[in-house]
Amino acid sequence: MNPESPKGLLAGTDGHLRCWWHGGYEDYQHYHDTEWGFPVYDDRRLFEKICLEGFQSGLSWLTILRKRENFRRAFAEFEFERVARFGEQDVERLLQDTGIVRHQGKIRSTINNAQRACELVEQEGSLQEYFWRFVPPAGERPDQMTYEKLGKLSQTPTSKALSKDLKKRGWSFIGPTTAYAFMQAMGLVNDHLEGCVIREKVKDAR
Fold this sequence. Notes:
By secondary structure, the chain is mostly helical. Helices cover about 50% and strands about 5% of the residues. The chain has two domains: about 1-35 and about 195-205, no CATH class; about 40-190, Endonuclease III, domain 1.
């Protein structure tokens, strides 16, 4: 971070200040500016993101982002009705796919979660209707988001509740920290820092 910039903010390629984590990488900055924190209501994208957050565990999101198109090809564009029908041949195929993270537990978890997603849609109507019930109540998070405050928010009571409910429904690889990262990315919260050029755009979109 530029020592002259407010803590937690980093100038992008256009000179505007953004959340530090884009790191000056063009693809990461594009993700920060156009996806992270903007509200998502599409079931396929919600399912994709919660699966990729599971694959990210122990890795950086940039690693997953740069493999995202490979993941989409490998997992039928994350159409969960199709992924739910994957069998052992698909598991073996995915374990040989060098374009993705070849972790057997996470691969099997994605197939399991696709099956659970189908059940959830039958029970709740859509993934959108379900996940958007987990917008945190007023007062759970600070109104003014700073670098220091964000650093203390790896999980929240709402992300714990989401994780607990999904696990009860049979989902896997979705702990409270993963659940909160999902909430941040899908716009259930706006964790762009104060002073970030994108914060107000996300606020308006929400």
